[in-house]
């Protein structure tokens, strides 16, 4: 393939990544406002979980289909579904609708995710991919820096609905470029069977597993019939999934992949780091707005340094990999740095300043950025080009499962911790006084759904205005009581989020132990795979390469 064609395809991938990056960072910044308007703080994690869940279960199917039918049709269909979900999310009238439409977005996002990484593998050799991953990391960083600022500005100046509509022009541009750049290659493949049973069992296994983590300890006790029943259904379905995958001719996820240490270590590490990262990052803007008391725009500024540091370390990491071919030391160093950063985050509190929070964000960004290009490159390097979509989807699957489970699990941990602390706040003097006055638009009870109304800057402004209109005899008492209530609420909120970061640090530490077992394989300068893992002596079971090694685009 000519260099010009490669760069044109790369441009299409960049636009697609811009679409996904802008969506995630803009939504994260606007979530506190969405939770307040739709009265759903306790369901906050589900807005992200729904997206992650639907994209997770579709990734392996898209990976297999792209190996058979090519990247082009699946990529374009995925972007179209994503844009439809974006429009409907912007029109959502309650939390249930938003969660459902975010799930639809995820179905499209799954195709975008796996095809982006597979296309890079199609057009560049493993030895080249590091530097191009660095370029993509730079683009990701630019949109990630702009996203929080744009999201905060849109949320403050207009409404949160427009954070979804902004996807439309970027998505249309990506579809046009990719439709022109990727040639419509026809494939003469006799066996095009798809493992629908395996895909169904994967869905049936993941959904109850996720529900068990979300509801456990908050809505139901961990040893309740409901939670144990969900875990039981998940266990049976996932066990059946493994059995089916071992027998079918074209599995969604071949169990043979786990016979190679490079894949199994990468999958476990991605699962653990994603659990810690996605779960914790979800609550950074919530902490900034709820505890520190900044606006949505300012909380976006806090996210920007982390993304920028992630870009810098990802670009440097990619260049080092391409020049030296050594990725294991970088993987160990990156996970170690991220572990330290998560542990430091567990000490943030009501006295934490913007500067201190930014420093923590930079530290975390540096660690996560180093690991960004490593695991996909390492796994793609070890398998035949014919399996590129499948192995890329396999690593993305575990990354997505980790993020989905982590967001739900750590969200459940925060909600349970917060609920236990809010019980004592019900008897605060201010709450009793406001209950007697019964003001319009101000909650007279504090729980997981209404706390944001007290902690948001708009909510506080409204309450102070109501206090100024109260009888003069109790205005001073109301002001002192409300100031005391704010400190109590912020402390409870901060303690709950600290618990999230601490568990995230523990998960990162386990990932650090696992990554030490990652083998180092020399990066190929072509798309022909090695026959065995260098220095390990474990034979890799490879399929036959395509004739002339032509990628399926």
From TrEMBL:
<feature type="transmembrane region" description="Helical">
    <location>
        <begin position="160"/>
        <end position="182"/>
    </location>
</feature>
<dbReference type="InterPro" id="IPR011701">
    <property type="entry name" value="MFS"/>
</dbReference>
<keyword id="KW-0472">Membrane</keyword>
<feature type="transmembrane region" description="Helical">
    <location>
        <begin position="500"/>
        <end position="521"/>
    </location>
</feature>
<keyword id="KW-1133">Transmembrane helix</keyword>
<feature type="transmembrane region" description="Helical">
    <location>
        <begin position="132"/>
        <end position="154"/>
    </location>
</feature>
<dbReference type="InterPro" id="IPR004638">
    <property type="entry name" value="EmrB-like"/>
</dbReference>
<protein>
    <submittedName>
        <fullName>Major facilitator family transporter</fullName>
    </submittedName>
</protein>
<feature type="transmembrane region" description="Helical">
    <location>
        <begin position="265"/>
        <end position="288"/>
    </location>
</feature>
<feature type="transmembrane region" description="Helical">
    <location>
        <begin position="356"/>
        <end position="379"/>
    </location>
</feature>
<feature type="transmembrane region" description="Helical">
    <location>
        <begin position="99"/>
        <end position="120"/>
    </location>
</feature>
<dbReference type="GO" id="GO:0005886">
    <property type="term" value="C:plasma membrane"/>
</dbReference>
<feature type="domain" description="Major facilitator superfamily (MFS) profile">
    <location>
        <begin position="9"/>
        <end position="522"/>
    </location>
</feature>
<feature type="transmembrane region" description="Helical">
    <location>
        <begin position="330"/>
        <end position="350"/>
    </location>
</feature>
<feature type="transmembrane region" description="Helical">
    <location>
        <begin position="300"/>
        <end position="318"/>
    </location>
</feature>
<keyword id="KW-1003">Cell membrane</keyword>
<feature type="transmembrane region" description="Helical">
    <location>
        <begin position="221"/>
        <end position="244"/>
    </location>
</feature>
<keyword id="KW-0813">Transport</keyword>
<feature type="transmembrane region" description="Helical">
    <location>
        <begin position="74"/>
        <end position="93"/>
    </location>
</feature>
<feature type="transmembrane region" description="Helical">
    <location>
        <begin position="194"/>
        <end position="215"/>
    </location>
</feature>
<keyword id="KW-0812">Transmembrane</keyword>
<dbReference type="GO" id="GO:0022857">
    <property type="term" value="F:transmembrane transporter activity"/>
</dbReference>
<dbReference type="InterPro" id="IPR020846">
    <property type="entry name" value="MFS_dom"/>
</dbReference>
<dbReference type="Pfam" id="PF07690">
    <property type="entry name" value="MFS_1"/>
</dbReference>
<dbReference type="InterPro" id="IPR036259">
    <property type="entry name" value="MFS_trans_sf"/>
</dbReference>
<feature type="transmembrane region" description="Helical">
    <location>
        <begin position="44"/>
        <end position="62"/>
    </location>
</feature>
């Amino acid at each position: 393939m000519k260099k010009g064609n490669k760069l044109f395809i790369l441009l299409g991938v960049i636009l697609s990544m811009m679409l996904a990056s802008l969506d995630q960072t803009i939504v994260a910044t606007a979530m506190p406002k969405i939770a307040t308007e739709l009265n759903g703080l306790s369901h906050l994690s589900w807005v992200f979980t729904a997206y992650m869940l639907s994209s997770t279960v579709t990734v392996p199917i898209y990976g297999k289909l792209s190996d058979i039918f090519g990247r082009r049709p699946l990529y374009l269909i995925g972007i179209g579904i994503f844009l439809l979900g974006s429009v409907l999310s912007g029109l959502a009238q309650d939390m249930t609708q938003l969660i459902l439409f975010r799930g639809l977005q995820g179905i499209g996002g799954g195709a975008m995710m796996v095809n982006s990484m597979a296309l890079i593998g199609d057009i560049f050799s493993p030895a080249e991919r590091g530097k191009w991953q660095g370029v993509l990391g730079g683009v990701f960083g630019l949109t990630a820096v702009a996203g929080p600022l744009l999201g905060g500005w849109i949320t403050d100046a207009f409404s949160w609905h427009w954070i979804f509509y902004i996807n439309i022009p970027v998505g249309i541009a990506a579809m046009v470029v990719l439709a022109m750049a990727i040639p419509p290659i026809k494939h003469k493949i006799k066996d095009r069977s798809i493992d629908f049973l395996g895909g169904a069992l994967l869905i049936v296994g993941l959904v109850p597993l996720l529900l068990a983590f979300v509801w456990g300890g908050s809505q139901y006790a961990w040893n309740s019939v409901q939670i144990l029943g969900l875990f039981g259904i998940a266990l049976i379905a996932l066990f059946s999934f493994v059995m089916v995958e071992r027998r079918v001719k074209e599995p969604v996820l071949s169990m043979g992949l786990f016979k190679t240490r490079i894949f199994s270590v990468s999958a476990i590490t991605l699962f653990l780091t994603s659990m810690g990262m996605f779960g914790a990052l979800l609550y950074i803007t919530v902490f900034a707005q709820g505890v520190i008391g900044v606006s949505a725009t300012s909380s976006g500024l806090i996210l920007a340094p982390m993304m920028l540091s992630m870009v810098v370390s990802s670009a440097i990491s990619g260049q080092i990999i391409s020049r030296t071919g050594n990725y294991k030391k970088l993987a160990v160093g990156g996970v170690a740095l991220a572990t330290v950063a998560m542990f430091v985050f567990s000490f943030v509190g009501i006295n934490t300043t913007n500067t201190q929070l930014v420093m923590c964000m930079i530290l975390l960004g540096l660690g996560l950025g180093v690991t960004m290009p490593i695991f996909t490159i390492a796994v793609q390097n070890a398998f035949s080009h014919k399996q590129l979509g499948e192995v890329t989807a396999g690593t993305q699957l575990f990354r997505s499962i980790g993020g989905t489970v982590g967001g739900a699990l750590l969200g459940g941990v925060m909600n349970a911790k917060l609920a236990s602390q809010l019980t004592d706040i019900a008897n605060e003097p201010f709450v009793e006084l406001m209950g007697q006055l019964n003001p319009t638009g101000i909650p007279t009870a504090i729980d997981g759904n209404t706390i944001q109304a007290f902690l948001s800057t708009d909510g506080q402004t409204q309450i102070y205005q109501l206090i100024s209109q109260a009888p003069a005899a109790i205005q001073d008492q109301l002001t002192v009581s409300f100031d005391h209530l704010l400190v109590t609420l912020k402390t409870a909120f901060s303690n709950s989020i600290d618990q999230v970061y601490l568990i995230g640090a523990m998960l990162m530490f386990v990932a650090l132990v696992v990554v030490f077992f990652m083998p180092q394989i020399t990066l190929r300068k072509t798309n022909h795979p090695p026959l065995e893992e260098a220095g390990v002596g474990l034979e890799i079971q490879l399929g036959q390469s395509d004739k002339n090694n032509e990628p399926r685009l």
